[in-house]
Amino acid sequence: MNLRYRDERLVPITGKEGLEGPGLSVSQKIFYCISFVGGQYIWSRLQSFSAFRRWGDLEQRPLARRAWGLVQNAEGLYQAASFFNLLLFLYGGRYKTIVERILKARLVYGSPNMNRAVSFEYMNRQLVWNEFSEMLLLLLPLLNSSSVKKFLLPFSKDKSAGSFGDEANCPICRSSPSIPFIALPCQHRYCYYCLRTRCSATSSYRCPRCNEVVVAIQRQGSV
Question: Where are its TM segments located (predicted)?
Fold first, then answer.
């Protein structure tokens, strides 16, 4: 590929514009590698470990719940910063990621006289689709499917679609819970595996019966 990273910090000093300019330093390359490889690995392992240890459950120690809150807040701040950086990239076209913006590393052409192997039309289409898919991945988890279903329920012909059947059954699998757990604070019964998988998939899972956020789960009958 006819692309390379340029250190934008030294461009105003050297006075070089366009495609010219120095490449990344050794420290920038090391930080870039650690951020993309080590950072993503450590963050994924931290999320898996916190979900496995159930830091967000109500019966956990205050330190574990506080750590879970910090993890969720850090993830939210990173997603918001990524979205803001995406808007800046679409406007200026300089830094595609937050790491590139911190390092002042900009992708430029390595050789201006190299023949183009891909047409502009394909490159523009690929760029637009890539950024559009990233925006969808960011916005779709924010949509509350339960609220959408509740809003569309009066317009549906099948009025029984909003009924979840017997209150004793699990609202997810519609069967009697083999290991009954209750969602807090709404106190509705679930199967343990159904409720655990939903809460692990999203931190703001809402009860299908009452549309209330499930903050913790508890075995039925336990104090």
Answer: none
- 55/49 Cα distance (integer angstroms): 9
CA distance 210 to 189: 12
Q: Decide: 186 and 205 in contact? Cβ < 8 Å.
A: no
Phi, psi (rounded to 5 degrees) for 171: -70, -5
β-pair partners for 107: 5
Q: 170 phi and psi, to 5 degrees?
A: -70, 130
Question: Any idea where the domains of the chain sit in the sequence?
Answer: 3-142, 156-219
pTM over 0.85? The answer is no
Lowest mean pLDDT among 59-68, 143-152, 168-177: 143-152
What is the signed CA dihedral for 73, 44, 90, 95, rounded to 10 degrees?
Answer: 100
First-residue to last-residue Cα distance in the chain: 63
DSSP helix/strand/coil, 184: strand
CATH superfamily of 156-219: Zinc/RING finger domain, C3HC4 (zinc finger) (3.30.40.10)
- The 10s digit of each residue's pLDDT in 76-134 is 898 899 899 989 988 888 888 888 888 888 887 776 666 666 667 777 888 888 888 88
- Let me know: does 182 contact 216? Beta carbons within 8 Å: no
Rounded to whole angstroms, the Cα distance separating 203 from 214 reads: 9
